[in-house]
Specification:
The complex is a heterodimer. Chain A is built from 13 helices and 16 strands. By secondary structure, chain A is of the alpha/beta class. In chain A, strand 3, helix 5 and strand 4 form a beta-alpha-beta unit. The longest helix of chain A is centred in the first third of the chain and has 20 residues. Chain B has two domains: 228 residues, no CATH class; 249 residues, no CATH class. Chain B contains 24 helices and six strands. Chain B is globular and about 70 Å long. The relative contact order of chain B is 0.12. The chains are: A alpha/beta, B mainly alpha. At the A-B interface, helix 1, helix 2, helix 3, helix 4 and helix 5 of A face helix 1, helix 10, helix 12, helix 13 and helix 23 of B.
Chain lengths: 410, 612
């Protein structure tokens, strides 16, 4: 703190000191940069230290939002990471060393994510980087990671061009090419909806999902009677809902995130439009239930994992998550959990070496995963092939696997 | 487009009026503060957000009914308003008007972050305790909450009208708004009136926050910015500082938005709204209900510039600083440090352009990020689609930004004072929305990826140090260009215009042309910075140059000292480096950033290096 406040004390005192501001800031900044960055968020503090994991930990860099408008996603990431690390380090870590991550807040803002990228590539302890959250922030940093030869594992980056940034860009995010047709088939073939009204988040994720969704829906014979794109900060859907109501849909599709999805369903409840609602896997979150309350009862979700799935990987995750956080796991946390396990598998194969870790992506096969069942990377696309889907429904304020029966009264 | 039935029309009318009522409440608060303190209060949105959270705690956490909840919200927000006025702003009263503005930005940062630290960044569910039943009134469906919102707003507006019209305190408030000095001579305690205006405005903002929380069934820490922009827009529409204007502006804004969405869809909401807003301002430069003929500003009072002596930087210090900057990559090869300073140089160019337009020419611009965006997109598209070499596309990007941006800013030239600030904010937003929606050219939200990296005469510039030098060289060239302009006949004319538009015109200065020249020169510099950024990032979309970037740029300028070129550079370095220095604080770093901003303004209101 003393180091931080010094330039500003100088600033106040006299005019002559002003040029010193520049120098002072520079010195302070470099002092900060040269010192080994403290592990801001030492994970798994509560986990008992295992004798097997000894020596210097292996560090993973995470660049993501912890403040600003997207901060809630960064918070979910941490929960997933910490849970995975509890298990990994509890079993003695990787190659006898503990895994730890250093989470640097970027606010998911490109001007900060590039700075964080430079910080990570210059820190020899970091062997792989995870994130960022949004495409502008992630892809602005890609050239830096690519040049430095540090893998940027953009685990939420569904933007089709993300992994085209270079051979150090990998992602285990499902692309819209898988997600959108699955959603369309669920709505039309399974639920028998023919006149669809679609709300989609107007970001690169929502837009790309919608474009492919619309193509596939047409192909299988569903009609899209209304399509409402909305910006991430939109809160007032009443006007759009009135429009949608007059288009007379027999089903509503939400390509939304948890908060905006809940908002749409809540505001829909105040109109007299009563039709089934189908959501993308991103709605699979306790936040959606918390914010949506009674209104989200009966919403269908084409999810990517079910908390009731008997697979041991899923059960291990769900049980541990409930025990640690006293809430239901969500899609983002599950994804972060999976990602950390993949990272552990990579380091197990490659050791703490940046280049070897990149090569290990093609060597790891069938890593157990909550979301995919098993993960194997495609060396061409640098993504995961064939994600699985599971149909969920909100019942009594919980996500449960849909039993195939249609809701009464809908 | 769906057919517009009578029923749909009636429903949309209700939708628009309800949201318009809430906009009106926010706008009244802003109008009161603007009227009395002559200040655009950026912290008002944060007070509104805190009101929403207090309401949420009372209703959802403590299970209270709405009556006591509104009383508690009113008390908390009223006290908060007084505290902001007393400790954040009163000491700055005698300073340049720009200092309190920056203070409110700092307060807003700190309050938003504080709430996020206490209540987590997650949105909180705020279900309305009212019954969900809707009644049909003559073919229109109205919910209980809709009726409550309308009733509260009407009651508050009526009470406020009676207060301003029939009580002595209300007279004092109006007198202070009309002429502060005269009111003081008549024995009005203007400081108390100031505090009163903040208290009343904050109470209204807080109550608006509770209602919007229930209406949207959730509260979240970042709700302040959007509400503030809407409140400003409503104010502008009705006429700045006019309370009845704020009410009607709020209602109109709600209706315009709702019918805009009904006609074009949600994604065009802001585009449609701001185009209408700017259209109204072009026809009626003082808003719909502002005083018909705005009083010309008294000489030397209509500006943002303080009477203070700027710090003169001796030539050897300037040269020394430049040499040190140029040698930095040899002193430290840490790419993290170099990237921070590369960002600082790029932001310094934005700050230079703002300090030229706002400080030298007196046109307060909150839309300068629009120039960054145009420059970035133009250069990226020229290089990608037409295969232009980088040196050409960078320059062309800058030129296009200057030309196109100035053309878009043209409606602003008719406006005065704070109207300029808010209208430029709107135009910046319009530029952003055009980029979002013109998919054929800009690829919409998917953005432009694989933008060619920087190069110079065929030599690729991809390493951190060369990029750093390239950015520094551009900044130096831009600064020399601007220095030359401001020292010339042109600079003197700009300053004359800034000091007194009437006198300048009387001396034969064509105001529109000189304003255009300022925006062109500033646009060239900002456009170049944007173009460079696009190639450095290799990917841009509509969020890359978000509207908040303009406010950040202006903050740098105010911090360094208005119109002061070295101040702009120092401000850019400070505000780029501070959040990095505060990294060890994790979640709390932007809280400290806000507090530091506040302290800097408190002890150095004319800017670090003083106003030129």
């Amino acid at each position: 703190m003393n180091r931080l406040s010094r330039p500003f004390v100088a600033m106040r005192s006299s005019k002559l000191a002003i040029p010193g501001v520049l120098v002072g800031l520079a010195i302070a900044a470099s002092a900060c940069a040269v010192q080994p960055p403290p592990a801001a968020n030492p994970p798994g503090q509560s986990a008992p230290a295992q004798p097997a994991a000894s020596g210097e930990p292996i560090y993973i860099g995470v660049s993501g939002p912890l403040t600003g408008p997207n901060a809630r996603y960064g918070v979910q990431w941490k929960k997933g990471f910490d849970l995975a690390l509890d298990a990994i380090n509890g079993k003695g870590g990787v190659r006898g060393r503990k895994l730890e991550y250093i989470f640097e807040d970027s606010q998911s803002d490109p001007k900060q994510s590039v700075v964080v990228a430079q910080k990570f590539v210059a820190d020899p302890r970091i062997v792989i980087e995870l994130g960022d959250f949004s495409s502008p922030a992630s892809m602005a940093a890609s050239p830096i990671y690519q040049r430095a030869g540090l893998v940027q594992f953009g685990f939420t980056n569904s933007h089709p061009d993300f992994t085209k940034g270079g051979d150090y860009m990998w992602s285990n995010s499902a692309t819209q090419a898988d997600l959108s047709p699955a959603l369309a088939e669920f709505a039309h073939n399974t639920l028998g909806l023919n006149r669809l009204a679609v709300f989609y988040l107007n970001t690169d994720w929502g837009k790309a999902t919608y474009d492919l969704f619309q193509q596939h829906a047409k192909k299988i014979g569903a009609e899209i009677v209304a399509a409402e794109a909305y910006l991430p900060d939109e809160k007032d859907f009443r006007s759009a809902l009135t429009r949608v109501r007059d288009a007379k849909p027999d089903g509503i599709v939400l390509i939304s995130y948890q908060a905006d999805g809940a908002q749409i369903v809540q505001q829909l409840a105040t109109t007299d439009l009563k039709v089934p609602i189908v959501g993308a896997s991103s709605l699979h979150s306790p936040d959606f239930l918390r914010l949506g309350g009674a209104a989200v009862e009966g919403v269908y979700i084409r999810g990517q994992f079910s908390p009731e799935d008997p697979r041991p990987t899923v059960q291990a995750f769900v049980q541990a998550y409930r025990a640690k956080y006293n809430e239901e796991p969500d899609f983002f946390a599950a994804h972060a959990y999976d990602t950390m396990n993949i990272v552990a598998a990579l380091i197990e194969v490659a050791g703490p070496d940046r280049r070897a870790i990149r090569d290990a992506f093609t060597q790891i096969k069938d890593v157990p995963s909550v979301i995919y069942g098993k993960v194997t990377f495609n060396p061409e696309t640098r993504r995961v092939a064939n994600p699985q889907f599971v149909d969920l429904i909100v019942k009594d304020g919980k996500f449960v696997t849909w039993d195939g029966s249609k809701q009464a009264g809908q | 487009m769906p057919e517009f039935t009578l029923r749909a029309f009636a429903d949309q009318l209700v939708n628009g009026l309800v949201i318009g009522n809430i906009y009106a409440l926010i706008a009244i608060g802003l109008a009161l503060i603007f009227g009395v303190a002559n200040l655009i209060n950026f912290a008002h949105g944060s007070v509104y957000m805190i009101g929403a959270y207090v309401g949420w705690v009372c209703v959802t956490g403590l299970g209270w009914s709405l009556g006591p909840t509104f009383i508690v919200v009113a008390v908390v927000c009223g006290v908060l308003g007084v505290l902001i006025e007393r400790f954040g702003l009163r000491r700055l009263q005698s300073e340049a008007r720009i200092a309190p503005l920056l203070a409110t930005i700092g307060i807003s940062f700190a309050l938003d972050q504080l709430v996020q630290l206490i209540f987590s960044p997650n949105p909180q569910s705020f279900p309305s305790p009212l019954p969900a039943t809707r009644v049909m009134l003559g073919g229109v469906s109205i919910g209980a909450l809709d009726a409550l919102i309308a009733a509260i707003t009407i009651t508050i507006a009526a009470a406020l009208f009676a207060f301003l019209r029939f009580t002595r305190l209300g007279w004092a408030l109006r007198a202070t708004a009309q002429d502060r000095e005269a009111a003081q001579q008549m024995g009005v305690d203007v400081n108390a009136i100031n505090a009163l205006a903040f208290a009343v405005a904050s109470v209204l903002g807080g109550i608006g926050g509770v209602m919007i929380g229930m209406y949207f069934t959730s509260v979240y820490p970042t709700m302040s910015y959007g509400a503030m922009v809407k409140g400003f827009a409503a104010n502008l529409l009705g006429g700045l500082g006019s309370v009845p204007g704020a009410v009607i502006g709020g209602l109109l804004l709600g209706l315009i938005e709702t019918f805009g969405v009904a006609l074009f869809g949600s994604t065009y909401r802001n585009l449609f709204t701001f185009v209408i807003l700017i259209g109204v301002l072009v026809l009626r430069p003082t808003g719909l209900f502002g005083a018909q003929r705005a009083m010309p500003p008294e000489p030397l009072t209509g500006t943002f510039v303080a009477n203070s002596k700027p710090v003169r930087i001796p030539w050897f210090v300037a040269i020394g600083g430049l040499v040190a900057a140029a040698l930095l990559p040899f002193i430290s090869s840490n790419p993290y440090l170099l990237q921070i300073f590369t960002n600082a140089w790029l932001f310094a160019m934005l700050a230079l352009s703002i300090t030229l337009v706002t400080g030298t020419a007196g046109q307060m611009s909150l839309g300068q990020a629009g120039f960054l965006a145009i420059g970035g997109y133009a250069s990226a598209l020229l290089a990608m689609r037409l295969g232009w070499p980088l040196e050409l596309s960078l320059l062309a990007g800058a030129a296009i930004a200057a030309a196109l941006g100035t053309l878009l800013m043209w409606p602003v030239f008719r406006l005065r004072n704070q109207y300029v600030a808010l209208a430029t904010l709107g135009i910046g937003e319009v530029i952003n929305q055009i980029i979002l929606n013109w998919e054929g050219l800009t690829n919409g939200v998917l953005g432009l990826s694989n933008i060619p990296p920087l190069s110079l005469f065929g030599l690729p510039i991809v390493e951190t140090a060369p990029i750093y030098w390239f950015a520094l060289a551009m900044l130096v060239v831009a600064a020399l260009f601007q220095w030359r302009l401001t020292q010339s006949h042109l600079g003197r004319t700009w300053r004359a215009m800034r000091e007194d538009e009437v006198a300048a015109r009387a001396f034969g200065v064509s105001l529109h042309r000189y304003k255009a020249l300022a925006f062109i020169a500033g646009g060239l510099i900002a456009g170049l910075s944007g173009a460079f950024t696009a190639h450095m990032y290799s990917y841009i979309n509509n969020e890359t140059f978000a509207a908040t970037t303009s406010i950040l740029g202006l903050t740098m300028v105010i911090l360094g000292g208005m119109g002061n070129m070295s101040g702009a550079v120092v401000g850019a370095i400070a505000l780029t480096a501070l959040p990095e220095l505060f990294r060890p604080l994790a979640d709390a770093r932007y809280l400290l950033y806000g507090v530091v901003l506040l302290l800097l303004v408190r002890f150095r209101p004319q800017g670090l290096l003083g106003t030129v």
